[in-house]
Amino acid sequence: MVDGSLDPAVLPQPSTMDAPTDTTQKSTGKPKPHIADTVMTRRNWYQHINWLNITFIMAVPLLGFIKAYSTPLYTKTAVFAVIYYFITGLGITAGYHRLWAHTSYSASVPLRIFLALAGAGAVEGSIRWWSRDHRAHHRYTDTIKDPYSVRKGLLYSHLGWMIMKQNPKRIGRVDIADLNEDRIVAFQHRHFLKAVIIMGLAFPTLVCGLAWNDWMGGFIYAGLIRIFIVQQATFCVNSLAHWLGDQPFDDRNSPRDHVITAVVTLGEGYHNFHHEFPSDYRNAIQWWQYDPTKWFIWTMKKLGLASDLKTFSANAIEMGRVQQLQKKLDQRRVKLDWGVPIDKLPVMEWDDYITQSENGRALISIAGVVHDISDFAAHHPGGKAMIRSGIAKDATAAFNGGVYRHSNAAHNLLATMRIGVIRGGMEVEIWKREHQQGAYIKDEGGNRIIRPGAQVTKMAEPMATASAA
Ligand SMILES: [Zn+2]
Ligand SMILES: [Zn+2]
């Protein structure tokens, strides 16, 4: 198991050693395609499988579960397994992820050693390998260069990318010079298999064996089954956190925020925030949100073991949140009928308006905009007679306070009934000029935003007399 042909997914190897077929040349001189780039058939399917990872991720835990049937679970072992689950989980979240992949804080040597050992106990590959893929995941999220893109399916992002062979050349390139210079990272990478055996299995077995003589229980529950649970939990960051929940900061990519993912992943569930602000040592920004990894890092700072905790300002975070809210608002606004835009309405002569009105069409001119109230008159809250009294007249003043100062909702409703504009109509001319000068507000899609009280039919000051009504 320790030869150089191991795949890097669970055990660290330079990416060029992913598969021996990689560098093999055909006699024609054409490079043979990587197995991952060939179609899976009945004859070659076993070559597509990453057997080493299958062993570590599926077969070994399965053995653990089978053996658990005949192994009693003692309370002390159970409690230790849960504690060790948190320790090794934090090795990944506080260590691999927030310290090494994102450098969101600085850690002292003792803390880095602790995190490197704890992370090895989670059996998810070396820091170097894990962080490189994770940086590629952030840089190329949802693209072909994302090593665990959720666009390839939920199961692929959770497990598939590890149990199927990957072409290492496909994964986006990232800078890991800092990791190569970190002696603890380099040491852990070099001795990773030993670290896995010691921290993943030997250590929990020894603790349970020496302390309360439960060697087998320690091996099965705090070792094998705990590894399985911590692996599956942290894999959820790649799958569940890109599939379940809200997108309060940006919805262009897949990352999402959800409390369930946070509970499962020691606080890594506020993933939409995390992808927007990746070097923030927090995932949850509210004190009441579940982020034990953040609490751990904060405690380490209080103990003098961590420093330089990076955060984005509340202002920068709120800017992103407001923009996303605005985007959602735009999507809701665009679904509504705001009436035909003024500059798209046909122009009518005043005389034509009068003629049509007198010939039985229920038209009302307000602020130079002509509205057809035929279907609405009977439903007018102020009465049919009142509204009909405005037909064939300039009802601007009457509508704006002369008779009744209509509500914002009334102006909105009125807008949906407009059918034309009067040539030279005062308010319309002002409105049009302002529009031409770009004085009106538009959303991202170029659609007009009509603020309350800013409808063309609304007069700035309520009119005192019903002169024209
Ligand atoms: Zn992600
Ligand atoms: Zn990340």
Please give the domain count.
2
For the sheet with most strands, the description reads: 4 strands, mixed
Low-confidence stretches: 1-26, 465-469
Count the helices. How many? 19
* Lateral strand order in the biggest sheet: 3-6-5-4
Query: Helix content range of the residues, please?
Result: 40-55%
| Ends apart, CA distance between termini | 94 Å
* Helix and strand run: HHHEHHHHHHHHHHEHEHEEHHHEHEE
User: In angstroms, what is the radius of gyration?
Assistant: 33 Å
**How many beta-strand elements?**
8
> Shape from CA axes?
elongated
Chain-averaged pLDDT = 87
User: What small molecules does this complex bind?
Assistant: zinc ion
Q: Given the helix and strand composition, which structural class is it?
A: mainly alpha
User: What is the percentage of strand-forming residues?
Assistant: under 5%
Assembly of the depicted chains: single chain
Catalytic activity: octadecanoyl-CoA + 2 Fe(II)-[cytochrome b5] + O2 + 2 H(+) = (9Z)-octadecenoyl-CoA + 2 Fe(III)-[cytochrome b5] + 2 H2O
Protein name: Acyl-CoA desaturase
Family: Belongs to the fatty acid desaturase type 1 family.
EC number: 1.14.19.1
Defining traits:
2 domains, oxidoreductase, mainly alpha, Flavocytochrome B2, Chain A, domain 1, binds zinc ion, disordered N terminus
Task: Summarize the structure in words.
It is an enzyme of class 1 (oxidoreductase). Its cofactor is Fe(2+). Pfam families: Cyt-b5, FA_desaturase. This protein has two domains: 15-320, no CATH class; 342-449, Flavocytochrome B2, Chain A, domain 1. α2 crosses α10 and α9 (192-212) crosses α10. The N and C termini lie far apart (94 Å). With 469 residues, it is mostly helical. A hairpin with a 5-residue loop joins β7 and β8 (448-449). Helix content is 47%, strand content 5%. The longest helix is centred in the first third of the chain and has 27 residues, at 75-101. It has helices at 45-48, 51-68, 75-101, 109-120, 127-139, 154-163, 177-181, 183-190, 192-212, 215-235, 259-264, 271-276, 292-302, 314-334, 350-358, 384-388, 396-399, 408-415, 426-436, and strands at 106-107, 306-307, 347-348, 363-366, 369-372, 418-422, 441-442, 448-449. One zinc ion (ZN) binds at residues 137, 241-242, 255, 271, 275.
